[in-house]
Amino acid sequence: MKRKHPFAAYVALSPTWLAVILVYIGTMVWSVRLSFTDSRLFPSSNYVGFAQYEKLFSSSKWLTALQNLVIFGVLYVVGCLVLGFLLAAALDRKVRFENAFRTIFLYPYAMSFIVTGLVWQWLANPIFGLQASVNALGWESFRFDWLTSREMAIYAVVVAGVWQGAGLVMVLALAGMRGVDGEQWRAARIDGIPVWRVYVSIVLPQLGPVLAAAGTLLTMGVIKTYDLVVALTNGGPGSATEVPAKFIMDNLFQRQNLGLATAAATSLLLMVVIIVAPFRYAQTISARRKAGTL
């Protein structure tokens, strides 16, 4: 029997499809087109080929932004996963005031990156922040002036990001830990297996899908990193914490270089597709094999 498709469903979904086609795909195509022009303050139809891309990848600031994105992305995602897992394991031991601790650890994730940046800008201030407080207690050799160092500033951004994002991983991992069969814990206690070994060898492998989902959410945030950097360092000192999103926004609104900004945005989009596409393809193949359709 031939399946009928209700016309009303298509009518109901038509606004969504129009929004996707016009707003998302349309603006994407328009941006790619502008990247091949000499557009400055206003769009131009004067095509210059790959001149904007040549200028982009000869810019030391853009190359530094890409390098910073890799450093921040790897350390941020790994740091959030490790710290979130450790916090979840600590709360999983049925500690007192678990609800209070869970709220405290998750609270930073409820704040925007702008607020996080301002908080850590104050904490990392060598005159008024954490360094000054510790020095006042007598430990005068303590230094936490990373924001004023070109070599350490990007790591200060990582610390602020991990402080905010670890709570999300903690909540997801804790939910997964509470789903572990209690018989496994009883068997481990009978065999005399240390608690840390149970978490590493038994619990952690079962949290694979949960941690993968958390890692995906965190990675999506890395690509869009802008407000945290602007609030915390504004890309400085110099260009030590410059990231691609800030490079694009600066060229778009401050330097009025629409062609270079769209070239940077297109390049970033292509990089994301190149990285994500193989993983998505592997997941599709794996799902088809499990379903027996391949």
UniProtKB/TrEMBL annotation:
CDD domains: TM_PBP2 (cd06261). The chain crosses the membrane at residues 7-32, 69-91, 103-123, 152-177, 198-223, 258-279. It is found in: Cell membrane. It comes from the Bacteria. Its main location: membrane. It is a multi-pass membrane protein. The keyword Transport applies. Pfam families: BPD_transp_1. Residues 66-281 form the ABC transmembrane type-1 domain. GO terms for cellular component: plasma membrane. Keywords: Cell membrane, Membrane, Transmembrane, Transmembrane helix, Transport. InterPro entries: ABC_transporter_permease (IPR051393), MetI-like (IPR000515), MetI-like_sf (IPR035906). GO terms for biological process: transmembrane transport. Belongs to the binding-protein-dependent transport system permease family. This is Lactose transport system permease protein LacF. It comes from Martelella mediterranea DSM 17316. The gene is lacF_13.
